[in-house]
Every structure is written in structure tokens, then in C-alpha cells.
Amino acid sequence: MDVVRILSSIILPPLGVFLQVGIGLHFSLNILLTLLGYVPGIIHAVWVVLRK
């Protein structure tokens, strides 16, 4: 299941964060980072998925 989350984090970062932690602070932060620049959103999403 982590492989699916990591792949979804690379393709669509907020989806990977949503699958890992649901809607909350990290989800909102990831949407903001993705809108500001795609790469920071990917880095944050992969960090959230690998953190647990």
C-alpha cells in the first residue's frame, strides 16, 4: 500500500497526503505547497508518507 501512496504522491501530491493522513493540517499545507510549486508539494507528500 505504501507503493501506491508514494506513486500517488509523485503524480498528485495532495492525493498521497490524503490517503495517508486524511483531511487536516498536512493536507492543507500540501495543497498550498503544490500550488506554489509542484516540487515542494512532492517533497512534502513523500515525507508525510514515509514518516509513518
Task: Characterize the structure shown.
- With 52 residues, the chain is mainly alpha-helical.
- 87% of the residues lie in helices and 0% in strands.
- It comes from Nitratireductor mangrovi.
Q: Which regions have little confidence, pLDDT < 50, spanning 5+ residues?
A: none
Q: Approximately what portion of the residues adopt beta-strand conformation?
A: under 5%
Using the alpha-carbon principal axes, give the shape. Answer: globular
Q: How do the SSEs run, as a string of H and E? A: HHHH
Largest sheet: none
**Global structural class:** mainly alpha
C-alpha-based Rg, rounded: 9 Å
Question: What is the total domain count?
Answer: 1
Portion of residues within helices: over 70%
Summed up, the helix count is 4
Question: What's the count of strands?
Answer: 0
How far apart are the first and last residues' alpha carbons, in Å? 13 Å
Report the average pLDDT across residues: 92
Brief overview, please?
With 52 residues, the chain is mainly alpha-helical. 87% of the residues lie in helices and 0% in strands.
Task: Provide keyphrases for this structure.
single chain; 52 residues; mainly alpha
Compile the SSE list and pairings.
Layout: H1 2-11, H2 13-21, H3 25-36, H4 38-51
Helix pairs in contact: 1-2, 1-4, 2-3, 2-4, 3-4
